[in-house]
């Protein structure tokens, strides 16, 4: 447990809690996801990071149906929501943003995708609402502890995908994959070779675009 806390910077070498470690237990998600959310606060992209972190806390939103035709539809739905980013996180984020809008804003694309993913996105919405209740006060204390004083603009960078990815990587570390372009393989700290899940939008992507 101490090793995990030190790995995510929740505990220092002397086994004392850091400011991050002090605040993480207050969020009802796993520590690395809590760190992800707090990084979203610091990097001012809280809303999208909160959505993605909560998506990682529950089952895959794009759960595949058993029927072959519906399975193909769900996979295509994920790909469309990824919008060329080659990111499952972006797919879930955009699906959430579209499918939780009021009914009058539902598009043909979202209607087509509602059946395979709707109930899981509803579950995601519930988890997100629960975690979001803790964010304002927690974020305020965390930012002040780091020398900041203003959390009003926690979504200044919420449209900046590069900044959002930085928060996601900070939370996921050390479980981050390295792209070895020379040997065309993916590696991780504990695994010499990593493969994408068959349902991932990355599974059929051209490697040079990763």
Automatic annotation (TrEMBL):
**Any GO MF annotation of the entry:** RNA binding
Annotated signal sequence range? none
The UniProt keyword set, sorted, is: ATP-binding, Helicase, Hydrolase, Nucleotide-binding
Entries under InterPro entries matching the protein: Helicase-assoc_dom (IPR007502)
For the Helicase-associated domain, which residue ranges apply? 6-93
PANTHER family named among the record's database cross-references: 3'-5' RNA HELICASE YTHDC2, ATP-DEPENDENT RNA HELICASE
User: How is this protein named in the record?
Assistant: YTDC2 helicase
